[in-house]
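TA notes. Do not distribute before section.
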Amino acid sequence: MALPQPSDDRTALVTGASSGLGVHFATQLASAGQHVTLVARREDRLNQVAEDIRAATGITPLVVTADLSDLESRSRVAEQVASSGRWVSILVNNAGLSTSGPVAASDPEAEVTMIRTDVEAVAHLCSTFVPPMVENRTGAILNVASTAAFQPLPGQAGYAASKAFVLSYTHALRSELSGTGVAVTTLCPGPVETEFGEQAGFTEEETHLAALRYLYVSPESVTSQGLAGLAGGRAVVIPGVGNKVSAWSGWAIPRRVLLPLLRSQHPAMQRGA
């Protein structure tokens, strides 16, 4: 199943488009001729990304500033897209964040913000933009989860649970939309060189542990594999052999064996130990 064809009345909407994977998703889609809509909180960063994309591809993106952890702000995304005269034919739910550390030492507000961004926003935007795709018999949805989705993760309990939701939700959505002309894929990256680790509260040393280096895949490769998998009709894309092994292990190893090992190795659980 190919991606929807570019058209003046369509747009590819990418959340979390001000940095990291979101920039690469938007750039690659624009390079393929898709009109793109960039959604994130940081307007100055979005405007710079939009200018870079325009200079590189000739596509002028629509910039939508929104806090995806806020219901009213999310609702305005659809309004601004509609006012541009386009409908969303490709949806990339890329925005996401994590906290780190044990729940007993967590910031309640940060935990809720994470869940609203990683869980609520995915469901809200899918339920908003899927109906026109079904009506038009064409569309594509790429929901970005993580290899953390395949097992509980002490030290990032809320994040792994949120990504498990995304994986389960997207599998179900894919089944519901079978035969409608709408493609649905979950992208499950492992570690990637972006701002994500720093924003989650990891130190530079923790994000560059030697034991994790074999899991890293470049952002360009992660996004290109995700979009290729979406175009190819794949259910789940896990970039990198090491990450495929990690995901399989998360499913296969008994929890009573796996969880103590993950707890002992997670850097956020080692602080103050």
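Switch to the second chain here.
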Amino acid sequence: MSSSRRVTIKDIARISGYSKTSVSFAFNEPGRISVKAREAIMKAAEELGYIPDPLARNFSLQRHHTIGILLPHLINSALRNPFITQVIQGVGSVCQKYGYTLTLIPPLNESVSDAVRAAAVDGLITLGMEAEMKVVQIIQQRKIPYVTIDGSPSADMPSINIKDRFAARDIMRKVLEAGHRRIAVISLMESEEFMGLHDSVTDFRMSGYSDALAEYGLCFDASCVTIIPAACTMEGGRSAVGQFMQLEERPTALVCMSDIIAIGMQQELQALGIQIPADVSLVGFDNIIESALVTPSLTTVDQPGGEKGRQAAELIFQLIRGDDIPQTHIIVPYRIIERESLGSVHTAAIG
């Protein structure tokens, strides 16, 4: 046999003396043939140096043995956000436990819908899905089990969330309790690659901030609370500082919807000689590892990305197996982490 030609199950059948069907069973459904037959077939395969084609095997079994994570951005942007990498790590740990691979699925041709149509996966984990989005209809049409993290689900859309509104209320309360009344909220700018990604998260958190402000007789108003949208990257945070510096009456506190934005702002402010919290206080949201390592360390909301990913993956495998699932809407606990970046308002705002 030529060494350049790929060994096939036809070759194994010829050498072993069993049919091609039996050879297929030996690799895919060994329980359907005798132990003696499988041993003879596997011996022939080893002698020939046969390695099964995973694509052909998956086609035969109608399984891919991989779970997909539908990324909200192109890969080079998504993986720069430590919260997303934490989610990926959590999902990956569960995939490894069950012998599955993990596939990262960025927008295809700038389209999330195209990416879902082309995805060769057994289940999908999405970030920030809303029930009415077109891509949800495509996933449902393909009959792919899916779970959304940080989404705004319908009753029949499995989800993993924290209570974003309550978490945002609690972190804003800390800012207000410190005496701050001139505040800038750094909100999540809608992703160009994934239209609608941040809408639900942003809305929940804005509602929570508003709840806390109302307790102090405040509201979103240019005279006391301004909104600065920013991309969910360090560069987005740095860019937001430019808008902050242009405000006629600068806030004494910056409330960011993402730690990575807050850290970007922190770096840019410090480069300009602005001290945190002496000149301006800063809080974030996520509690990524870096938030404890920067100086000053960041006051933030702890929402464990790794745990969200782990629970989403466990739920996906339950759906794939067809298990009886008592709860498909899972709420992960959050907590406020108080560190050095939030100070009292007794120090004057920068002028």
